[in-house]
Design a protein that fits this description.
With 886 residues, the protein is of the alpha/beta class. It has 25 helices and 30 strands. The strands form 11 sheets. The chain has a 4-stranded antiparallel beta sheet. β1, α2 and β2 form a beta-alpha-beta unit. The chain is elongated, with a radius of gyration of 36 Å. The structure holds one RNA strand of 75 nucleotides.
Length: 886
RNA sequence: GGGCGAUUGGCUCAGUGGUAGAGCGCCUCGUUCACACCGAGGAGGUCACUGGUUCGAACCCAGUAUCGCCCACCA
């Protein structure tokens, strides 16, 4: 992990302050990224107190994957917030992490370097991987060289470093205002130490515990799976009617989709009120084929209308079985192993010779083959009634797996999350209430998830790569681990790897011998590390000073799909460890949908590379597209929207160039509010004041879309109407050379003040174009300039009515329309016209009449009359008549 | 089965009680003294459907349909 210290502040560099002849948005990204880095524009100043800091818990992208359009989309949302807050005067704590922990990285490192992790091996400091860069061509599992966990982690960090450079390049090009001196890796030593320390403290307080219990198990990855990683999928199956037998020969027929679990059956169960089975409760039946005597029991979880209404309870076919097994205190008769195959040893509870022979035939088979074999046997014995009926059932899958999960008994670590503890659940629901969700309705997902938890958080995984549990167990005289007496390391020694490090008081040669010790073999779930990102970035481990300035954080940006995982687990950890929320607000981004309204996916072949997008349209344009979509709302991938953004950025450059042509930016001609005397100019500033107020309020409530929309709408009116209206006046047309009439000075100052304000309003969304213009006439970076406030504008505007601009604009529009409908040039002079104006607009038009005249090229007479309706009507003797609404 | 969100002109989306909006696309015209990555103007919608509340509903209520997602459902 890179050191989290920030660079000292340096003044931003100031390129030559002059307006270029030709402007372009192309190439701004490289220039300004370089300048920002050189100037330390986004360096975090850690001398600021917590109240002055805005800290962001950025999602660390998975480096072994690739960034896609969705990342660009959501990270832009966050950057808009960061830039806004920075301009509001906050010191923004905005680090970037790289997620290189977990299965995707494990796989990639295996394939890339041709190695696999074997924690039993010692660390080899001189290890050189057999392959390198075999991208696309995976090294086959058999050819992979086993290496120690430490070597594996080193390779992971090495490979990640290459990916990180590419990612950083993209993020810089996109204009993320991250402090690039502050990055972390989720498998880095800080992250490992934080994960281990947090775990040890959970353990100390009794929040972490281990238990031997039946749990969901993926037979492909051979690891336990947590509730949050489940995915219910359709899975083809078949109902089999199977007859059990009473001593008197009567058949009891059940239906099952898993006949291969027949040898694991421990009871038949029906609902206590089910009339059909009353006479069976308390009696026994024997299972077909295996002849095992089984009780018939009553339990309310049995549903009379499912299948035959009476179920065979096996250890374990599903979670209901687990419930029955637990509540009815049934024996454990597992037959499916961790590899998904039927256990080799014939179980002792199968007594009959035929049964034992049959079991021998299915031993070692996959559940699929075992099912076929048993169905054949049932058919032969006559215990299969009718033929199996195909059905589409829902089965639980590990989200990364492709085989249904089995339930096996294993020893696992858990962290309490309210799933078994009402008080904790209530407290965590309370945290959800405290947290500001944006949009607010996303809170429901949190509530649903927390309310529906049915067990504690399973944090151990039977993988080799990951953050190891910092725990050893003493071995007794017989060499059996004493799980009830775990040995833990000193916090100062973290991170440790118990498979290579030796606990205090032991020597290395005592590993694995009776009376010695043994390492906990498991690693933590990746969420067990990811849930600590606030603690990792804020220096919880070893930088209490930084921690005090940044924690609890302000914002967690993330996707809606991981509210139940990342968001919730982070809340759990902070609640347990810090007694607070990890952040005050969560910004939830929506999905990017392709034109078919489907979630963008690689398989659709419509994946667009983000860098290509940025190169084609320009970063400001792509950011504009992203910023146009509200938080929590799915957005279409819309190239058209990017083109609009590009047009806006270009317009900003051109309009700025124009405004800045009216005076030396160093002089107060473009900045002094006292010069703004004309009513139209003051009205424009009054309107701008409203825009500032609206945009600010919107951004305060994480509604960047409204802020952008409000600003943009004003800007286009500013360009199309106001700028055109005051153009001639600003030029000083008609005045003697060297003489600047007050009306001219008024227009120029108003234009300059508006430009200054608009640039700052646009800066969070269009960081490159606005910075470019800022450099033409201002010191420093626009991104460190203060966010505009409405008050000075209101003061400059005085009592001017912002509606004046609209009124004058309507008058101008009417004159334009006359020309447009007459199909003549806009420069065609209007020689003799009448403007019929509604009474409400009359004062506005009167006050701006000279500007309307010059903008409309009304060189002759232009008389005012009263209009009947609420629209302005222009009548020209030569060109005709046109109606324009304001 | 429960929940959340969505449904507005060809497209992407604003619009939470008072006579339907924007941009894009389209059509017409114009222009190069900030901007052709330009400007002006225009056409285009019974606001998914059915009821209800209200003087008045895109908006509130009830229900229906379609789409997306989350949760539950594995005998």
């Amino acid at each position: 992990m890179t050191d989290l210290t920030s660079r000292p502040d340096a003044p931003t560099s100031a390129p030559a302050r002059q307006v270029p002849d030709k402007v372009t948005v192309d190439g701004l990204e490289g220039r300004w990224d370089g300048a920002w880095t050189a100037a330390g524009a986004y360096s975090f100043d850690r001398s600021k107190e917590r109240a002055q800091v805005y800290s962001i818990d950025t999602p660390p992208p998975t480096v072994s994957g690739s960034l896609h359009v969705g990342h660009v989309f959501s990270y832009t949302h966050t950057d808009v917030v960061a830039r806004y807050r920075r301009m509001r005067g906050y010191e923004v704590f905005y680090p970037m992490g790289w997620d290189d922990n977990g299965l995707p990285t494990e796989r990639r490192v295996q394939n890339y370097y041709g190695v696999r992790c074997d924690p039993s091996l010692p660390y080899d400091p001189d290890f050189t991987p057999p392959h390198q860069g075999t991208d696309g061509k995976a090294v086959k599992a058999g050819d992979q060289v086993p290496v120690s966990r430490r070597n594996f982690i080193e390779l992971c960090e090495r490979l990640s470093a290459e990916d990180e450079q590419q990612f950083e390049h993209l993020w810089r090009r996109l204009g993320l205002s991250v402090d690039w001196s502050m990055t972390y890796q989720t498998i880095g030593s800080t992250a490992r130490a934080v994960s281990q320390r947090a775990f040890l403290r959970n353990l100390e307080r009794g929040e972490a515990y281990q238990a031997e219990a039946p749990g969901l198990w993926d037979v492909t990855f051979q690891t336990a799976v947590a509730q949050a990683e489940l995915e219910a999928r359709d899975y083809p199956g078949a109902f089999h009617k199977v007859a059990f037998h009473r001593p008197d020969g009567e058949q009891v027929v059940i239906e099952t989709t898993r006949p291969e679990l027949l040898p694991a059956c421990v009871a038949l169960i029906a609902h206590p009120d089910d009339e059909r089975y009353q006479h069976l409760f308390g009696t026994t039946v024997t299972s077909p084929l295996f002849g095992v005597e089984l009780p018939v029991l009553a339990h309310p979880a049995a549903e009379p209308d499912k299948g035959a209404g009476i179920a065979m309870c096996c250890t374990f076919g599903d979670l209901t079985d687990v419930q029955w097994w637990r509540e009815l205190r049934l024996p454990t008769r597992s037959v499916v192993g961790r590899d998904g195959r039927v256990l080799r040893d014939t179980p002792e509870w199968i007594a009959s010779e035929d049964g034992r022979a049959l079991y021998g035939e299915i031993a070692g088979k996959t559940t699929f083959s075992a099912r076929e074999a048993l169905v054949a046997a049932l058919r032969e014995s006559g215990d299969l009634l009718g033929e199996p009926v195909a059905t589409q059932r829902k089965a639980n899958f590990y989200e990364k797996g492709d085989k249904p999960l089995e339930i096996v008994t294993s020893r696992q670590w858990y962290i309490r999350n309210g799933g078994r503890d009402e008080d904790l659940r209530t407290a965590l629901l309370g945290r959800g209430q405290e947290l500001g969700f944006h949009p607010d309705f996303m809170r429901v997902r949190y509530d649903n998830w927390v309310g529906g938890l049915n067990g504690d958080w399973l944090v151990s995984r039977q993988r080799f790569f990951g953050v190891p549990f910092p725990v050893w167990y003493p071995l007794d005289e017989a060499g059996e681990p004493r799980y009830d007496a775990p040995i833990t390391p000193d916090e100062a020694a973290l991170p440790i790897d118990p498979t290579s490090d030796v606990p205090a008081g032991y020597t290395a040669d005592q590993r694995g011998v009776p009376g010695g010790f043994v390492a906990d073999p498991d690693v933590m779930d990746t969420w067990a590390t990811s849930s600590l990102t606030p603690q990792i970035v804020c220096g919880w481990l070893d930088d209490p000073d930084l921690f005090a300035r940044t924690f609890p954080m302000d914002l967690r940006p993330q996707g809606q799909d991981i509210i139940r995982t990342w968001l919730f687990s982070t809340v759990v950890r902070a609640h347990l460890e810090n007694g607070s929320l990890p952040w005050t607000d969560a910004a939830i981004s929506g999905w990017i949908l392709d034109p078919d309204r489907k979630k963008m996916s690689k398989s659709k072949g419509n994946v667009v590379t983000p860098l290509g997008l940025l190169e084609e349209h320009g970063s400001d344009a792509v950011r504009y597209w992203a910023a146009s979509a509200r938080l929590g709302t799915d957005a279409a991938f819309e190239v058209g929207q990017m083109k609009i953004g590009r047009r806006l950025a270009i317009k900003v450059l051109n309009a700025s160039k124009f405004v800045l042509s009216f005076g030396d930016p160093a002089e107060p001609v473009l900045t002094d509010p006292a010069l703004v005397t004309e009513t139209l100019d003051r009205a424009m500033l009054a309107g701008l004041a409203e825009v500032v107020a609206t945009a600010t309020a919107a951004l305060e409530s994480y509604d960047h879309t409204r802020a952008l929309e409000t600003t943009e709408t004003f800007f286009w009116t500013f360009c199309d109407d106001y700028l055109e209206l005051v153009k001639d006046r600003a030029y000083g047309a008609g005045a003697a050379a060297g003489d600047v009439p007050a009306a001219t000075a008024s227009a120029r100052a108003a234009l300059g003040i508006a430009l200054d304000t608009l640039l700052r309003l646009f800066a969070p969304v269009l960081p490159f174009a606005t910075e470019e213009v800022w450099s033409w006439w201002r010191e420093g970076s626009v991104h460190r300039a203060p966010w505009p406030t409405a008050e000075p504008l209101r003061t400059a505007a005085g009592d001017a009515d912002p509606g004046v601009v609209a009124g004058a604009g309507a008058a101008l529009a009417a004159l334009r329309k006359v020309k447009s409908e007459a199909k003549v040039s806009m420069r065609t002079p209007i020689e003799h016209a009448v403007l019929a104006v509604p009474p409400a607009l009359r004062p506005a038009v009167e006050v701006a009449l000279d500007d309307v005249r010059s903008a409309g090229r009304a060189t002759g007479t232009l008389d005012l009359a009263e209009a009947d309706g609420d629209a302005v009507v222009a009548r020209d003797a030569r060109l005709g008549e046109a109606v324009a609404r304001s």
